Amino acid sequence: MRKAMIVWGGWPGHDPDLCASMIRGWLKAEGFEVRIETTTAAFADPAIHDLSLIIPIYTMSKIEKAEALNLCDAVRSGVGLAGHHGGMCDAFRESVDYQFLCGGQWVAHPGNIIDYKVDLTKPDDPIMTGLKSFEHRSEQYYMHVDPAIEVLATTTFSGEHAPWIEGVVMPVVWKKRYGAGRVFYSSLGHRAYELDVPEIRTLMIRGMLWAARE
To answer: Where does the record place the ThuA-like domain (predicted)?
Structure first.
């Protein structure tokens, strides 16, 4: 049985406890044994090197250098990493080691909760197959991203809320390699209920399975 660890905490506005419960259920349905932790100290545990998958759900907050480096080492050795929204890519803003691992960092969501479109860029990728571009109402994340990521979906900013970014095409869903490990991220899912949007739920489950070490 493959083993996964979910670490949740940080800013409560992203419903980290509810998201952790939902994702735990999805992973258990896929045959994973799932460990739940609520402090960043879990990332320093040598035992994480034996996991198949790690899911951070920890918006903002801080991570100790040793915790970040052990997490990075685990993924570099082959452990998968997957996550969504601020729980993964607006976590630990002061840790460049962690940001290098994830492939991107949130910097803004102009207009806050707005209507926008998610466009699939690689509809034939196994994570996205059968899905179509879709409209969504939530935070439209503006991110600083690693050019090495493989982009699976994007969104285009209208400029209504920040005129200087009109027409900017921004990655929404991506995957990347980090050493021997696979990393998957989706910027969708500001609140837990959004994870139950069929397209978001499907790509999250597939993304986690892709990232997980066999």
So the answer is: 3-211
Render pLDDT for 135-185 as a digit per residue (tens, 0 to 9). 999 999 999 999 999 999 999 999 999 999 999 999 999 999 999 999 999
Q: pTM of the prediction? A: 0.98
What's the distance, CA 108 to chain centroid? 16
Q: The tokens 């991570």 sit on which residue?
A: 63
67: left (phi over 0), alpha (psi -120 to 50) or beta: alpha
